[in-house]
Amino acid sequence: MVQPRIAAAGDNVVDCYRELGTMFPGGNTLNVSVFAARFGASSAYLGQIAADAAGDAIATALQDEGVDTSGLRRVRGSTAHCVIGHDAQGDRVFVSSDLGVSVFTPSAEDLARLKSFDAIHVGATSGLDPWVPAFAAETRLSYDLGTRHDADHIKRVGRSCYLIILSGGGLDDAAFESLLEQGEGSGATWTLVTRGTEGATLSNGGRRRWKSQAHRADGVIDTLGAGDTFCARVLVGLLRNEDPSHFLPKAAAAAALTCTQFGAFGHGVPIASEIGASTTC
């Protein structure tokens, strides 16, 4: 089986679960780097963390998952964190967050290195939009816009994309169709619009669409990271030239499995004292 080489660059964070007293490594691009490795890709992560306990948790998790961390910087400051709680109904709520040192500037060496990869994955939360054209000039670009549906942003990014990803959870049918058409018309080779429990649709520029049903998960306890799981499997499948009808059900099943554990991909450790002191985690 073909082993694609995938780099992921940008946002990282430790998600702090107050009730558990535990923090888990996460962030869209970091999650994708881990899940891509789990799905058989040769994966690397480019980003920035601090020389603190949260940074240690992220670096250790990446290494344990077999992700290449030679592009991971460690600098003075604090690693990004997000505090997660639950409301009276038990639904997850984001209490507070701090980007820390996660926003970084790619170096000339980073850009040159991308030539050896089949794709790079970045996201709207990574702060890397100024480098999108440069990334796309070196390799295929996968870009996750999440819920940022600004039409100009979709068009501006999409023209550089191999895969553009949009989150359409909660949209009615008309709004979902409109969002999908925007992605298809952006110039991206592939458009993926996810819809939570209503599945997802993958399109090759509007020429053909493949629909995926959500996979039933038993024992759901946390949906954090499920979308990143799905997107990583789609990217790996596309780079392997697999038939979408083959990899989409596998992506849905993997996303459902992610929902059965806390944190995007596990590796929980006690919340760092410096985070707990500042956030009452």
Task: Give an account of the 3D structure.
With 281 residues, the chain is an alpha/beta fold. The protein contains nine helices and 14 strands. Strand 4, helix 2 and strand 5 form a beta-alpha-beta unit. The chain is globular and about 55 Å long. The N and C termini lie far apart (44 Å). The mean pLDDT is 93.
Structure summarized in a few sentences:
With 281 residues, the chain is α/β, with parallel strands linked by helices.
Task: Label the overall shape.
Answer: globular
Q: Tell me roughly what share of residues is in helical segments.
A: 25-40%
If you average the pLDDT, what whole number results? 93
> Going across the major beta sheet, what is the strand order?
5-4-1-8-9-10-11-12-13
Structural classification: alpha/beta
In terms of DSSP E residues, the strand content is 25-35%
Low-confidence runs of at least 5 consecutive residues: none
Give me the number of helical elements. Answer: 9
From the N-terminal CA to the C-terminal CA, the straight-line distance is: 44 Å
Q: How many whole angstroms does the radius of gyration measure?
A: 18 Å
**What assembly state would you assign to the polypeptide chains in this entry?**
single chain
Order of helices and strands: EEEHEHEEEHEHEHEHEEEHHEH
**Largest pleated sheet:** 9 strands, mixed
> How many DSSP-defined strands?
14
How do the helices and strands line up, and which of them pair or pack?
Blueprint: E1 5-9, E2 13-17, E3 22-26, H1 28-38, E4 42-50, H2 53-64, E5 68-75, E6 81-86, E7 92-98, H3 108-113, E8 119-123, H4 132-138, E9 140-146, H5 151-158, E10 163-167, H6 173-184, E11 190-194, E12 200-203, E13 209-212, H7 226-239, H8 244-258, E14 269-270, H9 273-279
